[in-house]
Amino acid sequence: LEICDLLNGIELNPEDRHVWLSPKLISLQAQKITVVLEERFPEEKGRFEKNLTAFLKEIEELDAKIRLRLDPIKERSFIVSHPAFGYFSQQYDLQQLSIEQEGKDPRPRHLEKMLEMAKKSKAALALALPQHNNKGAEIVAEELGIPIHLIDPYSAKFFETMLSLADLIANPKSEAP
User: What is the rounded CA–CA span in Å between residue 41 and residue 115?
Assistant: First the structure.
């Protein structure tokens, strides 16, 4: 058994280990995995390199599609029940406002603070995650009169999820694709 720390060399955000939700960072992780596999199975090096090249091309295309969707938007903040999209937000110059704090459900004072931040930043969307308590995000979304959409950062359909996320941020009032 070989252990490869895929977080090594990545500047981590507090409370957020969802690095795969950044196309830039998932590319780095794929490269690290490929190096370990090539060392472990040198006879398969060509296949690993071919697969990595194809994957990196897909990620590059995904990044271009996300940028195409997000570059024109002006309001660049959104509410989220759990801080899963920090790395995605960093890569695309967005601001996620997390209802959950330090892994705990929000207290009334924190909800008030998030509500004020959301108003100031003109957040137009709230995201709920199926694995988390979404009550706080629902309350803030209702108070602001903004749509709330369910999105699963652990979905096996990575590319579709990433494009759906970009679409929802770019067009908050639309339905998830």
Answer: 52
Q: Which residues contact 95 (CB under 8 A, 6 or more apart)?
A: 76, 77, 78, 89, 121
Give the SS3 label for residue 78.
Answer: strand
Q: What one-letter code names the amino acid at 44?
A: E
Q: Record the tokens describing residue 119, joined without a space.
A: 């108003």
Q: Which DSSP symbol is given to 99?
A: S
Q: How many other C-beta atoms lie within 10 A of the C-beta of residue 146?
A: 18
| Phi-psi label, residue 102: left if phi above 0, alpha if psi -120 to 50, beta otherwise | left
- Give residue-wise pLDDT tens across range 154-169: 999 999 999 999 999 9
Packing angle between helix 135-144 and helix 108-121, nearest 10 degrees? 40
Cα-to-chain-centroid distance, residue 50 = 27
Please give the order of strands across the beta sheet that includes 95-98. 95-98, 77-80, 126-128, 148-150
Phi, psi for residue 94 in degrees, rounded to 5: -115, 170
User: What is the band of 24 on the pLDDT scale with cuts at 50, 70, 90?
Assistant: very high
Tens-digit pLDDT profile for residues 48-80: 999 999 999 999 999 999 999 999 998 789 999
What confidence tier does 140 reach under pLDDT thresholds 50, 70, 90?
very high
Residue 96, beta-bridge partner list = 78
